[in-house]
Automatic annotation (TrEMBL):
Name of the featured protein: Acyl-CoA dehydrogenase/oxidase
Any Gene Ontology biological process: fatty acid beta-oxidation using acyl-CoA dehydrogenase
Superkingdom to which the source organism belongs: Eukaryota
All residue ranges annotated as the Cytochrome b5 heme-binding domain in the record: 4-80
Organism: Jimgerdemannia flammicorona
One Pfam family linked to the record: Acyl-CoA_dh_N
Cofactor(s) of this protein: FAD
One MF term in the entry's GO annotations: heme binding
Organism ancestry: Eukaryota, Fungi, Fungi incertae sedis, Mucoromycota, Mucoromycotina
One GO term describing the cellular component: cytoplasm
Family designation: Belongs to the acyl-CoA dehydrogenase family.
SMART domains in UniProt: Cyt-b5
Ribosomal protein keyword on record: no
Length: 534
């Protein structure tokens, strides 16, 4: 950085030509003479503000990180007697933009969060901002997956483990913010998923452990003690990677149609696995695969380690190859019977109970991603001037923001209510009682995401589809739809939720308009019936 000194605005005004071009951005003086001819938008854009205040023009075209990138090269001083007016975001910064964070971080009261959650979010956000954000954009664009070195670093910091939820697997591990394993709950995990989503690079986001989030729980919840002891530490510390392999070219939501087979050897000590899996997130980079197969007794889940007979290849999708989405081909793969997850023939139960956690994690991510778009819209509306006044002063923009905020806050509060139930239930009880609420929350969250994305496009106009200006709305608009599909098409969780509700309804007194039909004889005491109805 050049030597710094203070200038008056009159002194800066003298440098207003292509041969000596200074500009002022938020009281900082930048000498951009050498950059004038290299500016992607042409020299005229800069020369219009040469020697002048350029804050409004700069932020109308660029994000703050552009200033952070070029400031060290071009800043030569500051305006005498003036201070920065625009908040400088630093690693770990908690946004003060209205509704940019969930309500507890907006100074509201909450029955769910406590001091440990504040410490946890501050710590994990700083890790993301310092270790991941600097290279995330370029890696997303190049389709470059997170390196093994970064993965190990996230494992050592406890970031990977914090996305799997509470349990014995956390014992002895370091967690962000110094949180102890015994105080870690599902709200800490919710925060971990939110912070990953806040990164806002969908392919790279998923490359950072989407496979782990859905592939490791079957091992932890249904694997043998010996299998967990062998595999879990390697995965949680980032030394190995894992994914969930269920979908096949001919079997998606209809899990019963999977064709991959696992046949026992004559001595009964191994399975021989053959088949193909498709659209498997992280498959290209993984070492372990929690795999659905057909066995002699029916659908089963088995853990397969990469080795002879296992081949993976990338699939091109609408988002970045950094996610490592791919095919997996199993050809005569020999797998120890000890790698069975749960009981043989009961794989469907393993899959469905795992779907709950997967959908819940998706809810955490999609709601946080939607909130990020709302934040971008709010900042832009206060920054952009049209027809002589800021966008936020236009009634139609205020109405759009109000509807966007109301819907995001609604699904966030529903998510937190469900998460609270998770903290009080065993894994088995969650599987039985929360499948419906989680599925319906996902249905609503993804619809809200679509609505917010559409409204953001109206607020930003052409900038919502421009790669270099407002990346969050653009990427969100292109990718949010994929959150509606996994696990299973949107109709599957709806049917599941209503089936679950109907099952409870049919086992209880059934209310029809203003009549109540009870599943007991009419001779039942009238006094009790009256009290029951009241």
């Amino acid at each position: 950085m050049a030597a710094q000194q203070e200038y008056t605005r009159e002194e800066v005004a003298k440098h207003n030509t292509a041969k000596s071009c200074w500009i002022i951005i938020d009281s900082e003086v930048l000498d951009v003479t050498k950059f004038v001819d290299m500016h992607p938008g042409g020299s005229g854009v800069i020369l219009e503000v040469a020697g002048k205040e350029a804050t409004t023009e700069f932020y109308g075209l660029h994000r703050q990180e552009v200033l952070f990138k070029y400031r060290p090269r071009f800043k030569i001083g500051t305006i005498k007697g003036e201070k920065l007016q625009i908040v400088q975001q630093v690693p770990g910064y908690i946004s003060e933009v209205p509704y940019a964070e969930s309500s507890f971080w907006m100074k509201m009261k909450s029955p769910y969060y406590k001091e440990s959650h504040l410490k946890f979010r501050a710590a994990i956000r700083k890790i993301y901002d310092t270790e991941i954000v600097p290279d995330a954009a370029s890696n997303e664009d190049m389709g470059k997956a997170p390196s093994l070195e970064l993965y190990k670093k996230l494992g050592a910091e406890g970031v990977l483990a914090s996305r799997i939820g509470p349990g014995p697997h956390l014992e002895g591990l370091k967690l962000p913010g110094g949180i102890k394993a015994e105080e870690f709950d599902y709200f800490h995990e919710l925060i971990a998923h939110e912070e990953n989503a806040r990164l806002a690079f969908p392919g790279y986001n998923d490359g950072l452990g989407a496979g782990l989030v859905i592939g490791l729980p079957p091992v932890l919840n249904f694997g043998s003690y010996e299998l967990k002891a062998k595999v879990a530490p390697l995965i949680l510390l980032g030394e190995k990677r894992i994914c969930l392999a269920i979908t096949e070219p001919t079997a998606g939501s209809d899990v019963a149609r999977i064709r991959a087979t696992a046949k026992k050897t004559p001595d009964g000590k191994h399975y021989i696995v053959n088949g193909v899996k498709k659209w498997i997130t992280n498959a290209v980079h993984c070492d372990f695969f929690s795999t659905a197969v057909q066995t002699e007794k029916g659908i089963s889940m088995i853990l397969i380690e990469r080795g002879p007979g296992v081949e993976t290849s990338a699939i091109k999708t609408s988002y970045s190859p950094a996610a490592g989405t791919g095919y997996i081909a199993f050809e005569n793969v020999k797998v120890p019977v000890e790698n069975l997850l749960g009981k043989e023939g009961q794989g469907f139960q393993v899959i469905m109970s795992n779907f709950n956690h997967e959908r819940w994690a998706i809810n955490c991510a999609v709601i946080r991603g939607t909130r990020l778009v709302v934040e971008e819209c709010f900042k832009w509306a206060n920054q952009r001037e049209v027809f002589g006044k800021k966008l936020i002063e236009q009634p139609v923009i205020r109405q759009k923001l109000a509807h966007m905020i109301a819907q995001v806050e609604s699904v966030q509060n529903w998510l937190e209510s469900i998460t609270y139930q998770m903290t009080l239930m065993s894994y088995k009880e969650q599987s039985l009682r929360l499948a419906g609420p989680i599925a319906l929350n996902k249905l609503m969250a993804t619809r809200v995401a679509h609505y917010v994305s559409d409204e953001a496009c109206q607020i930003f106009g052409g900038r919502a589809i421009t790669k270099t200006v407002r990346r969050h709305p653009r990427r969100f608009r292109r990718n949010h739809g994929r959150s509606r599909c996994p696990p299973g098409d949107e109709g599957l969780p709806q049917r599941q939720a209503l089936s679950e509700t109907s099952a409870h309804y049919n086992a209880s007194p059934r209310y029809m308009l203003d009549w109540c039909i009870f599943p007991f004889p009419l001779s039942f005491p009238i006094k009790f019936v009256y009290e029951f109805v009241l």
